Amino acid sequence: MLDMKFVRENIEAVQANLDNRHTKGDLDTFVKLYDERKKIILEVEELKALRNKVTEEISQLKRNKENADDKIAEMKKVGDKIYELDGRAREVEEGLRNVALMLPNMVDASVPVGADEEDNPENRKWGEPRQFDFPIQAHWDLGESLDILDFERAGKLSGARFTIYKGMGARLERALINFMLDLHVDKHGYTEMMTPYMVTGETLTATGQLPKFAEDMYQVTGDDADYYLIPTAEVTLTNYYRDEILSEEDLPKYFTAHTACFRAEAGSAGRDTRGLIRQHQFNKVEMVKLAKPEDSFKELEALTDNAEEVLRLLELPHRVITLCTGDIGFGSAKTYDVEVWMPAQDKYREISSCSNMTNFQARRGNLKFRRGPKGKPEFVHTLNGSGLAVGRTVAAILENNQQADGSVRIPQVLVPYMGGAEVIKPAK
Fold first, then answer.
1. For residues 364 and 379, is the Cβ–Cβ distance under 8 A?
2. Which member of 43, 74, 350, 378 is catalytic?
3. Out of 355, 363, 392, 399, which one is annotated catalytic?
4. Is 97 annotated as catalytic?
5. Among the four residues 116, 330, 349, 388, which has the most C-beta atoms within 10 Å?
6. From residue 239, how far is each of 146, 207, 211, 233 by CA, in Å?
7. Cβ atoms within 10 A of the Cβ of 66, count?
8. Among the options 353, 363, 364, 399, which is catalytic?
9. What is d(CA 175, CA 157) in angstroms, rounded to the nearest whole number?
């Protein structure tokens, strides 16, 4: 969340940020509650100062064996007033926090102003889309003809937007997960983690999914507590040091994890209803960084390159774009999307989103670091990115590596992970 003092002192800038993002925030209520809180705090401080002064006078009267009943009665009224104001202060504080939790992060000055994804500028491309001399098949058709993806029976088990991988399809998914983790750990220096798939509401609030995006969450109700299924390992990895103070020497921290991810896709009705692009459950290898503020944008560039390297090694054409103000995520100050070429759709599709959240999540999760033993605690900067979304990578491999006979060539870097297999052949 944003620093409340910053918001109050920079209302016009915060409003401009909302306008550029094409979103809304209740700044009128924020100002009203912020100013009321300030007024209450001042009034309580004045009343407490008066109570301390009169209490000393009462003590002096009692030492002199003089009557202090009037002053005692007066102080009882002051105490009652302080109690009343403290109660109101708690109500105002809760309301103020609720409004602040719905305000998005301030975008970095380098983010282009734009309305939507059509205004996202392209930064760079890698690889040339392949020219096919035979009819191109979509990955969902390839998956069925190769007998490696079963959408129909997955629908029977769970409904729409679920997939069963089988045989070489399951092997390919597992191979990609292991390849990505090995690359990020052995070459890029991340620490591999295995984290829970269910978390508390407090955990999701810290990373910004709650309360704004509650409709996209899957909630699990148990006897003891309510849990949510994670939409990404960003949630668990970013919260790992929540409510702690790290030392400057601890930073930067790099974490990576493979998890299943669960998303209701509440706002995607009618979009990507076929195939692996938009599922309710999917595998993803996530990267998270915790960095000092002065290093975070340099770390964003490196994070994005880590995601790109997965695609370079898989020999998949891709590009990197910068998300404009109208397309950037709620908690992000700057985001690069890495998009892979999908031949059957004749377009690039997002496969990784790499973001610098600055101190937005750290403030919500009270995650700080200290420069030196006597330094004042500061909020860390948090970054996250997919490295990569595994199902979308499977889809890209199937479409880009398909052959005229209906088979699919396995990228050379994956062959050792596939038990030496170089081709997935059509089912007989």
1. no
2. 350
3. 392
4. no
5. 388
6. 41, 7, 16, 10
7. 9
8. 353
9. 25
What was the pLDDT predicted at 270? 75
pLDDT of residue 223: 75
Distance, in Å, from the CA atom of 241 to the CA atom of 109, rounded to the nearest integer, reads 29
**3-class DSSP state for residue 55?**
helix
Nearest CA to 102 out of 223, 238, 236, 210 is that of 210
Residues of the chain under the 70 pLDDT cut: none
pTM recorded for the entire structure: 0.94
Burial class of residue 412 in the structure, from the number of CB atoms within 10 Å of its CB (0-12 exposed, 13-18 middle, 19+ buried): exposed
Number of helices (H) and strands (E) in the chain: give both, helices first. 12, 18
Task: Decide if 94 is catalytic.
Answer: no
In DSSP terms, 125 is beta-bridged to: 319
Please report which residue ranges of 284-346 form alpha helices under DSSP H. 296-313
Q: Which of 37, 263, 319, 364 is catalytic?
A: 263
- Token digits of residue 20: 């550029």
Task: Give every CB contact of residue 401 below 8 A, 6+ residues apart in sequence.
Answer: 408, 409, 410, 411
| Distance (Å, whole) CA 402 – CA 139 | 9
pLDDT tens digit sequence for 147-189: 999 999 999 999 999 999 999 999 999 999 999 999 999 999 9
CA distance linking residue 332 with residue 114, whole number of Å = 15
Q: What is the pLDDT of residue 268?
A: 73
